[in-house]
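Q: Sequence in, structure out?
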Amino acid sequence: MASVTSATVHEGFRLGQWLANQRNHQRSYRRPLPAERAQALADIDPWWNPPWHLTWLRHCYRARDAAAGRLLQAENGFNDLDDRGAADWLRRQCALYDELHPEQRQLLAGIGITADVARTAQDHARTASHIWAVNQGSDREDTARRAGSLADPAALTGRRHARRAAELKRPRDPRSRLGHRPDLRPGFETALAHARAWHAEHGHLAAPRDTRHDGYALGLWLFSQRNRAKQRARAGLPSSPHLSELATIDPWWNPPWDLHWQRNYYRARDHAEAGLPFDPAARIPAPSTVLGSWITRACLQYDQLHPDQQHLLNTIGVTAQTAGQWPPSPRPRPHAEALTHARTWASEHGHLCPPIKTVHDGFPLGEWLNRQCELAKKRSSPSPTQQTLTTIDPWWNPPWPILWQHTYHHARANPRHPATRHWLRNQHRGWLLLHPDQQHLLVSIGIRP
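A: Exactly. Output:
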């Protein structure tokens, strides 16, 4: 499944986007993927949702295909492979072999890259770089010698050597153990100073992205640091050492859950520390307020939260016992009335694609159906209400523009209308560009290519 990108469409179904949604759900602590669905996907492909970045897996499959039927020769840097990109990628994996995830090493072993092969490739890389440096140095010496002899028969290189030998050597700055180049360290220190000042004032580093502290774009800088940490985690790489300084300021500067949850937690903490009325067991603040609504959701979802989230809630008085006193989340009322109007409209008109301003017996059917279409786009699987609508009319929410569906129903009901004839001629011209199901609908009313 790694080769399926987010733009992949299979037989009219947006498979790539659906898989991306499943991976997001699986990695989220708010709405984890149902166990049976995750198992079904794992049965198809055990690596459908790897703990590292998906790009690594795609490169791995590319290297596997390039190495199929070949005996890898690490002693020459895999130069026997026809795919140069795959060879370069294999050399990089051998150089980073000790830092890879155990399951990444397992996948590489399937290609033929074991620990011994990686060591051989590393030895070849060191030998090749040394030979290249020696050759480059000799080439530069030859070039300088030829240029000096052409410029002056007296060979000025001797005086230059003497002058350089007399100059004091500028000491090189040792590479920072924090992983920064020396020229970038001052900027990092400046950002850390603003972060410490913000934390001293607010008690956390969950600053919004547009936050500016004394003119410095602190929110954007923290956002970039979080992205960098997540990219390294997806790639299976260890955390950057310099980011530990941010964790020293605020242990929850980059939590594994959504930062929006973290900001709401700090609002609740500040509310309680300010001495304002706060008693989660007594529904204070009231669930009708913004803060009370968040506390209500935290209590109802307590068992699904990360253990560290539960620990943070315990510090403000929201415990498992408190959460257990809340009634279960009320089930949404079924849209019985709306579905009744939908069935009546479909029986009268033969479809469920009314204009958005349609009102049926006082019920705004058009607006309600439009809202269901918008909700269907955000869901990874249809809700029971949307499944019922599909049984009423399979094309109530088509994958093509809804305007085409409106025009189709108008053409079916008014085949002799001038506008209908013009529209049908356009469908004839662009027949090959239509969706197969659009072609099927046109054939059902007697329109053929």
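The longest helix spans residues 115-151.
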